[in-house]
Design goal:
Glutaredoxin, Cyclin A, domain 1, elongated, 5 strands, 2 domains
Length: about 200
């Protein structure tokens, strides 16, 4: 009888213990899920589109989180296009990245689109934006560089690999494809739970 009680207790405790090991968050598992508190550094990939209002919303909501995890989480922006969009803003972004100005230019493109209602997929507008931000000469020189084209293609290939169909799509540690749900604010507020569970 005592043995039976021990066995029953074990099976009652087991699901609870396993639940405690689950990494918090709402996500699909793409690959081998890391163990809880197993990573010294986390890769946080954000697939975004410069014309997407949800991406712009997430950009504004995630600033504090990105500051908090600086050095422990590598935040990687992967701009992608929707059908019919010109790739000029992506080329400007990658030129800016080569100059160490990726964040500044990313913010400027989003603000041009959502504060000033400018069509950032117009190559003439992007040329003007590059000049006004002080990198016009570099943009003209580098925009068609094969390395820039390679970076754009690599982003598209990775989006295909992860099955990205909408933006923003967040993939953490190459394994967790986060589900945003109905509220971008709730999503942004709960993302640190997932990061905390992955980090050592």
């Amino acid at each position: 009888m005592k043995t039976l009680l021990l066995i029953v207790s074990f099976f009652l405790i087991l699901p609870s213990a396993m639940a405690n090991e689950k990494i918090r968050g709402n996500y699909d598992v793409l690959n081998n899920l890391p163990k809880k508190h197993s990573l010294k550094k986390v890769i946080f990939e954000e697939f975004m589109n410069f014309g997407c209002p949800h991406c712009n919303n997430f950009r504004n909501l995630s600033t504090e989180m990105k500051d908090k995890y600086k050095g422990r989480v590598d935040f990687v922006d992967i701009p992608i296009l929707f059908r019919g969009q010109d790739d000029a803003p992506l080329r400007l972004y990658y030129v800016a990245k080569s100059l160490g100005k990726a964040e500044e230019i990313k913010n400027a493109i989003f603000e041009a689109r959502f504060k000033n209602n400018v069509n950032v997929f117009d190559s003439g507008i992007i040329n003007y934006l590059a000049r006004s931000l002080g990198i016009g000469e570099e943009y003209t020189k580098q925009a068609q560089n094969p390395e820039i084209t390679k970076a754009i293609d690599a982003g598209n290939q990775k989006a295909d690999l992860y099955g990205v169909t909408a933006t923003p799509t967040i993939v953490i540690a190459g394994a967790l494809k986060m589900k945003i749900g109905n509220s971008m604010e709730d999503f942004a507020n709960h993302l640190p739970e997932t990061l905390d569970d992955l980090l050592q």
